[in-house]
Amino acid sequence: MVSRVIPVDPFDLVIFGGTGDLARRKILPGLYRRFIAGQMPEDARVIGAARSELDDEGYRKDVRDALKEFVSKRALSEENIAAFLSRLHYVSIDAKGEGGWKKLAQTMRDDDDVVRAFYFSVAPSLFGDLAERLHLHKIAGANSRIVVEKPFGRDLESAKALNATLAEHFDETQIYRIDHYLGKETVQNLMAVRFGNVLFEPLWNAQYVDHIQITVAETVGVGGRGGYYDKSGAMRDMVQNHLMQLLCLIAMEPPSRFEPDAVRDEKLKVIRALEPVEPGDIVRGQYEGKGKTPSYHDDVEDGESRTESFIAMKLHVSNWRWAGTPFYVRTGKRLKARQSEIAVVFKDAPHSIFGEAAGRHRNILTIRLQPNEGMTLGVTIKEPGPGGMRLVDVPLDMSFADALGPEGDEIPEAYERLVMDVVRGNQTLFMRGDEVEAAWAWTDPIIEGWTKRDERPFAYEPGTAGPEESAMLLHREDRRWREIKE
Ligand code: NAD
């Protein structure tokens, strides 16, 4: 296959928090993979900036260890590692003080053709300090870009404050709010399938779609992040950002162009069209302990905590396209399998010419984000062989690995794609400030509702699909969740 990758300008990418967990696990391994794919220009450089006292060599050693741990053996070679590490530099910096900033200013190249990008891979409480000092020391200019990580606020008020702080120093066109779900190949393929074919769009509405399910299931508990997680819960940690973004891409109207503001305008309209959620349409859960597996209460060391580690909800997008079509979303920890998928469940054929015995068959478009990214369309066909007309559902596979050859199993990971988009100056797959605020404006009253009602989450056994009450959300309407399985 001939690669038609859009070239990338030379860049200096500074990773604040360059020694942290996210940088070691995702950002640096992603950059390494782009480097070996030949996508990093000759003179691109990566500058780690964090609190630890290290020199370039010390940092390179640390990153070498990270690559060995988080990049597949197949992609590692001494030659490549050495070449990649030679692009790395390090500046020890104090986000809250003056230490290191002069050195960082000197380390950056003074050349208008070199893109300056700053990845804020640090706690959000430091975002304001970083933005301010980048300006104070004239390190960031009109052509610089910043990348900010989740969580972007914990409610509307804090998100607005964060947006205002960043806006003091950066224009919206310079701010890249990352949601790595948008960087997944399949999520973009969803848009290609929806808007690149004539087949789907005519059916993509309440007339033909019975309902939509979005599931993000994890097997891990809150583990070492208990302190942080307990203040947040599944609604803030997963629904307000990741599930909401997926819902927007499914529900939005076709944008006029695949361009940042055209796409983000349409997503924003979806968020604004989301109706408030009735208490009876929300199920929150908390995992119990089992054998040696600790309970949620053990994990967060608070036996009274009412924070949810699971949530399922029935949502409505109130516009012409989706009137009457429910969107069921659920996410949780310590569930049966690690699985993220979107399922578009189409309506039954209006009349069955094959009679009762043929059973109920439905087309389901499944967009799987993990594991094994891919897309399948379930279609009904005749079961082969004699003996009458028996119907059977078979999946039409639209996965890249099969369709596009061996490169398919080397699909770039979300982070590497998104970092390269920052360097290219393409904001399409990043959240705009007003989107984030609209998402919180919808989320806040829901959380306030259950806090006021003083509700306890339902307990659920680890290794299941969550509390039984979640199944009831669909059963009562003669629907069922798709099975959570590897
Ligand atoms: P971490 O605690 O592992 O690393 C924090 C980094 O910040 C370190 O490099 C540290 O040196 C640096 N730092 C801390 N205080 C500093 C200061 N005053 N001046 C300069 N540098 C300072 O954190 P992490 O897990 O890498 O997370 C970083 C950010 O990314 C957080 O906002 C987190 O919420 C977000 N995030 C992390 C993950 C993940 O998987 N780890 C996933 C999504 C979002």
TrEMBL record:
Catalytic activity entry: D-glucose 6-phosphate + NADP(+) = 6-phospho-D-glucono-1,5-lactone + NADPH + H(+)
Family, as annotated: Belongs to the glucose-6-phosphate dehydrogenase family.
Cross-referenced NCBIfam families: zwf
Residue ranges of domain Glucose-6-phosphate dehydrogenase C-terminal in the record: 191-482
Entry keyword annotation includes Protease: no
Gene: zwf
InterPro entries with a match to the protein in the record: G6P_DH (IPR001282), G6P_DH_AS (IPR019796), G6P_DH_C (IPR022675), G6P_DH_NAD-bd (IPR022674), NAD(P)-bd_dom_sf (IPR036291)
Name of this protein: Glucose-6-phosphate 1-dehydrogenase
Species for this entry: Palleronia pontilimi
Record lineage: Bacteria, Pseudomonadati, Pseudomonadota, Alphaproteobacteria, Rhodobacterales
Location of the Glucose-6-phosphate dehydrogenase NAD-binding domain: 14-189
